[in-house]
Amino acid sequence: MHEGVMKAWLESSHLGGGNMAYVDELYESYLADPASVDEEWRQFFASLPKIDGVDLETRHSDVRAQFLELAKNKHREVITVAGGGADQRQVKVLQLINAYRFRGHQHANLDPLNLWKQPRVRDLELSHHDLTEADFDSEFNVGSFAGGETSMKLGDLYKALERTYCGTIGAEYMHIVSTDEKRWIQQRLESVQSQANYSKEQKLQILKNLVAADGLEKYLASKFPGAKRFGLEGGDALVPMLKAMIHRAGEQGAKDCVIGMAHRGRLNTLINVLGKNPSKLFDEFAGKYEVVGAGDVKYHMGFSSDFETKGGNVHLALAFNPSHLEIVNPVVMGSVRARLDRRGCVDGSMALPITIHGDSAFAGQGVVAETFNISQTRAFKVGGSIRIVVNNQVGFTTSNPEDTRSTPYCTDIAKMVQAPIFHVNGDDPEAVVFVAQLAVDYRNTFKRDVVIDLVCYRRNGHNEADEPNATQPLMYQKIKKHPTPRELYAQKLALEGVIAADDVQKLIDGYRDALDKGDCVVDEWRPMTESMADWTPYIGKDWDVAYDAALPVEKLVDLGNKAIQFPESHTLQRQVGKVYEDRALMLKGEKKIDWGFAEILAYASIVGAGNRIRIVGQDSGRGTFFHRHAVLHSQADASVYTPLEHISADQGPFQVYDSALSEEAVLAFEYGYATAEPSALVIWEGQFGDFANGAQVVIDQFLSSGEQKWGRLCGLTLLLPHGYEGQGPEHSSARLERFLQLCADHNMQVVVPSTPAQVFAMIRRQMVRPLRRPLIVMSPKSLLRHPLATSTLEELSSGVFQNVIGEIDTLKPSDVKRVVMCSGKVYYDLLDERRKRNITDIAIVRIEQLYPFPAAEMAEALKDYQHVKDFVWCQEEPQNQGAWYCSQHHFWASVPAGAKLTYAGREASSSPAVGYLSVHNKQQQALVNAALTLV
């Protein structure tokens, strides 16, 4: 066939590109219900290529290729439809429906201020599809359009499409791959044309919520003028939205709801959703604080309560968070995961995470993308979350959208996980509530994230002391004249005859009276009775509280034998097999215990006692340095077996996950988990210790200060590989100095264990001791296989972590002229060199816990050296790093009066370590020589 003729024929054929949308519609109808298409089409679709044996879901690329092949092959018999213009218009009608589904949101009425300048979308115009109003009375098949009819007049269809996709709700969902999810959303939107149909009682409840949202802000403005409160004015619909979500979730079986949000609207959420007593908030504004620790500003504080729904009470928790806006989101997800695990819920239905974002922060903060990325992974799955963007249309203080993102919507980042996005006009509270309920239903149906873009405005500046007219004059001239959401909705209900104007005023007066009395203003508030984690055993305890972690050797051997068992059919890799053979010898006393097995034994003892262990890190199953091997991979079929899951029938869960390549979101998730579950040992392991740099905000704002600011206990353990072996600047230091700089008020523990017995005792101490504070471990690399870094079963059996380890060689104390103090790997370099030189007048003391500093144990270790005047602190790190600057006041306090204390180590450096092995070795030898050479 001539090329030009072929082109014309393809364009006119029902299988040509111009009709592809029509064929796609038929095909998707066939996928949903084969009986919905003609027999000829059924036979054709059934003959299409199948992928991996799946009959219905087929890659569209394969389907399109098949269509094209049919169209090009003039010898092949094709299915025809009745010719003529009517058939071409039928195709165009289906294309029109598709266009509205894809792009209707671009013409939706979303901006309450009507400032948005929407671009013209040709796809939504009749003329673009060769249709006109003259066709309005013609009836067409509407394919899968869920309007309740298989055919409609074009005029009726056009109105339905406008109402569904271009009203006060703009739906973005066609980027989703799953046909089921798209069909579900289409059904929910198109069947009611995106219009809520609420009863009089439901409408009055929405109005009451708006009265509360507006009333609190006006009350605070009048009572405390000029005070920062980051008010919700303009985004008032957030209150009915949240309450609708909680009710819906409770009706569907949720028992927990954890909310994370930044500043704007937080006080309103506390009072009008969670039911915090207003009098307590007013006391905080008046400066009457119930101070515990350092405290924090009002708009960072969290709260907990129970909320009554038709499905039972839901426990609400508003997470505490700092001004690092989006970092609270993975914390919320971790808290939800802990609650789900505690309840034994695997599908997420019993706990709902809701995170509330600012428009600029949602698009601008990388942790949002990290949290989306991990949302469907094994370690971090919570059954989906609901993300609400309170879109003020002004970034944070003065930034306009063109300066805050590179995409049309602030929510476009959510498309990375194919989350549906529902934009909704904040001045239409019924649409807001409709979308809220839709979001909960979608999340619970598909166990995936869903995003709501609440398009609104802020009536004041970034805070109440800010002057927005200076930078957004036109917007704020309009805002000044714009009625509040409560006023607009009250007018609407009055016109509908739902409520009289006098009754609206009664609601306003009644709410203000309740605030004056200091009464709880949330009808659904209930005292907390829902089962929660019990923190009472850990409250008021300090780090030196007594505990007993000893285990008989026989018990250790029994646990060890169970921890090295695996099925005979499970073929291990050669080196891993050798590790397990050696562990069997260790249990028989034929080899000493190494680091990896001591760790495994500690975990076995904890799960054997019924406690949960959760370990997360980028190589945690195997261990970055090939030492742990908690998860065994069969060389025959790649199946996995975890011996620690088979310690006993009534053991606690053992969960170890190789995480995504993220530090910030993952560490924040684990913090959230640990703050919600005191009975679990929660560990985050850095692939290298300096990788914690990527999560520094979590360490600074949560781990180190959460107890002081918010009274939040947390037993999270960080394993951070640290040690100078010549691996360069980025693989040497876990930045010990940064953690020590954050230490105060006994807020966390910083330890540098040097033997397997120490790591065994350290892990058990973190669980057995009735104390829940973060544990920061400078964990080893080369010590994992160092011939001197071994222990006996008897040493493990004591269960005692030694904060200080004194001299171990048989030196005569009276001969000692110098005492070298150190921590970590450098001890073995010093010990090896001293033995080589046969030095007998220099003692070496290890400080295994640098904070809280063990002054009493230090005094005991140095009691025989009170005559010594020469004390040295030796470290591998540069002088401006490591423990020297942050801890030398503790070292000075430990040495005898009149003694001198000097430094032996690398010179100060802007980089953690040198990049050349030869230079590293020279430096290492020099610092060892300096420590062991008497002047």
UniProtKB/TrEMBL annotation:
Its cofactor is thiamine diphosphate. Residues 593-786 form the Transketolase-like pyrimidine-binding domain. Pfam families: 2-oxogl_dehyd_N, E1_dh, OxoGdeHyase_C, Transket_pyr. One of its GO terms (molecular function) is oxoglutarate dehydrogenase (succinyl-transferring) activity. Its EC number is 1.2.4.2. InterPro entries: 2-oxogl_dehyd_N (IPR032106), 2oxoglutarate_DH_E1 (IPR011603), DH_E1 (IPR001017), KGD_C_sf (IPR042179), ODO-1/KGD_C (IPR031717), THDP-binding (IPR029061), Transketolase-like_Pyr-bd (IPR005475). Keywords: Oxidoreductase, Thiamine pyrophosphate. E1 component of the 2-oxoglutarate dehydrogenase (OGDH) complex which catalyzes the decarboxylation of 2-oxoglutarate, the first step in the conversion of 2-oxoglutarate to succinyl-CoA and CO(2). Belongs to the alpha-ketoglutarate dehydrogenase family. This is oxoglutarate dehydrogenase (succinyl-transferring).
